[in-house]
Amino acid sequence: MNMIVSTAIAGTAVPAVAAEINDPIFAAIETHKVAAAETNAAQRRMSVFEDELQAKGRLRTADRLADERRKGEEIEAAIEEAHHSEQVTAYAVLDVNPTTMAGLIALLTYACEYDDVFRRRPAGARWRAYKKAPDDTGALCC
């Protein structure tokens, strides 16, 4: 028996199939959610670091102490790594075909919710950028 339940995706309730259904899209979505959260956390660390530097009057790189430069470089590397991981997991989400109607609904809902919650962009705008057709028709490539 399949029960429809609610699960939180990007902070919003969306329909999902109970655990006995094994649709790979749910795991792909969860993996991307973790990667997106890591990117946002790394960006927040940079923001806090820049606020600290601003308070000390050393926001410009040339004005920073050696340990502040090193910390800034480490945070920037973490942002780059997290962003790369987020992109890889986004491609993985797009490569997974939902095997249930609930999985399809979860995928479409997550794509819209991700754009709204994580990136503050119009629904679907970021996902279209990942796999746009070479002929620029806007169609998704496989």
Distance between the termini: 33 Å
Low-confidence stretches: 1-10, 138-142
Domain count: the total is 1
| Integer-rounded radius of gyration | 19 Å
> Residue-averaged pLDDT, rounded?
77
Widest beta sheet: strand line-up: 1-2
Structural class of the helix and strand makeup?
mainly alpha
Number of strands: 2
β-strand amount: 5-15%
* Total count of helical runs of at least 4 residues: 4
Shape: elongated
Order of helices and strands: EEHHHH
Query: Which range best describes the helical content: under 10%, 10-25%, 25-40%, 40-55%, 55-70% or over 70%?
Result: 55-70%
Main beta sheet: strand number and arrangement? 2 strands, antiparallel
Give a written overview of the molecule.
- The chain has one domain (22-130).
- It has 142 residues and is mainly α.
- Residues 1-10 and 138-142 have low confidence and may be disordered.
- The chain is built from 4 helices and 2 strands.
- It has helices at residues 24-56, 66-95, 101-119, 125-130, and strands at 4-9, 12-17.
- The radius of gyration is 19 Å and the shape is elongated.
Question: Which key features would you list for this structure?
Answer:
mainly alpha, two-stranded antiparallel sheet, disordered C terminus, disordered N terminus, 4 helices, 2 strands, single chain, 142 residues
